[in-house]
Amino acid sequence: MSNTIKLKRGLKANLPALAVGELCLCTDTKELYIGTDSGNMLLPSLASPAFTGIPAAPTAAAGTNTTQLATTAFVTGKFKIQETDDFITSTLPNGAWGGVY
Question: N or C terminus of the chain with fewer C-beta within 10 Å?
């Protein structure tokens, strides 16, 4: 059994106030909007920088120990890294596992 999804469509200039959860496709700009409690909200394109290219994220404060993702700025600030032609040596905090890679 299949489900049907209905959405409004039309020119952006004629975009109506959408009901909560209602979708509308602007046929001239190819933008997709959804109705929310606070009005119409533009949904991001799959080709937006949020979903393509190099992702960016805020860098956690020093000493953060949570399940959030670590940025390269956080990691390189946490460890002393020395590179040579043959290997990379990292000096890790006391009690951390590590060595030569």
Answer: N
